[in-house]
Amino acid sequence: MQGSLTVERMCQLAQVSRASFYRSLQEQTPVEEDMGVRSAIQQIAVEHRRRYGYRRISAELRRRGMLVNHKRVVRIMREDNLLAVQPRHFVVTTDSDHQLEVYLNLAARMKLTGIDQLWVADITYIRLKAEFVYLAVILDGFSRKVVGWALDRTLASRLAIRALEQAIAKRQPRPGLVHHSDRGVQYASGEYIAMLEKQGMIPSMSRPANPYDNASCESFIKTLKREEIYANQYDDLEHLRANIEGFIEQYYNRQRLHSALGYRSPEEFEQQAACQTGIEDVKATTITLVARLAQSSTLMLEPGTQTPSPAPDLIPAKETNVTTS
Fold this sequence. Notes:
Elements: H1 7-14, H2 18-28, H3 30-47, H4 54-63, H5 70-79, E1 118-127, E2 132-140, E3 146-152, H6 156-171, E4 178-181, H7 185-188, H8 190-198, E5 202-205, H9 215-229, H10 237-252, H11 266-277, H12 279-283, E6 285-290, H13 291-294, E7 319-324
Parallel strand pairs: 1-4, 4-5
Antiparallel strand pairs: 1-2, 2-3, 6-7
C-alpha cells in the first residue's frame, strides 16, 4: 500500500503525526518489539563479555538501526542482570620521589590533528595469586589506540622501555612526537630519556601528584582493570598475558566503542581520519612550541623541583614551528 510514498508523505496525506504512526506500529506488536530489543541487548552484552554499560549498548543499538531510550536499556539490563562491573577506587602507584630531572607539561598545550603527534605512557601493577606483576602501556593521544605494551614481573623501568620499543617498531614515528608520562622514576631515567632523544621525541611530564594530566592513559587502565582483570581470575602470568593480549589487540583497539571518539573503536577512528585527510597528512606532525621549551635546556626543571608548567599567557612571544612531513 505504501508504494513509492515516504512515511512522512503518507502521514501528511492521512493528517497524522509520524510519532502516532510509529506508536501504532509498536502497539500492534509490543511483545515482539520488546523481545527484539531485549535480544539485541543480550547479544551485545554477551559479545562484549558484560564490559559495556548502558551508554555503549545504547550507542551500539543505534549503530544497528535501533533507536532505544537509554532509560529502557538500563531497565532491561537491570532485569537481565547485565549491568557492567563497577570500578574500584583509584590507587596512587607512581614513584615520583626521586632526584632525576623532570620535564614541563607540553601535552596540555597541543591541539592534535592526527596520529603519532602525542603518545601517553603509564604503568600499573596487577595482583596474581602469589605475586605482583607490572603492565606498561603507551597510547596514541589522538586515537586512544594502544600502540605499545609490555607485561612481566621484571623491573618497571625495563618494562617501560620494552613498551616503548614495541610502539616504535609498530608505528615508526617521525621526529617531533611528544611523549607524555607521569613523573615516575621509570620515565625519568637516563636510559629512557636517551631512547626518546634518539628517536627525536620530546619528553613531557604531568604535574606532581596529578593523574588527570595523563587522563587518557589512566582511563584505559581503569577500563582494562574493570572490564578484564577484575572480572576474571588467572592461573599464572602466562594466562594473564594471553588475556591481556586478547583484550588490547583484538577487543579494545578493534571493537570497543570509545565515547571520546564518537563511539567508534580506535582503529575505526584512525581509518576514518586517514580516509578524510590522507595517511601522509595524518602522520605528518606540525607542532608549535616555545623555543625555550623545545630547543633549550630550560625544558628540564632542576632536580627534585615540582614547579608546574607556566601558564600560556606567560610564555615569551618568540616561537618556532617544528614541522615534519
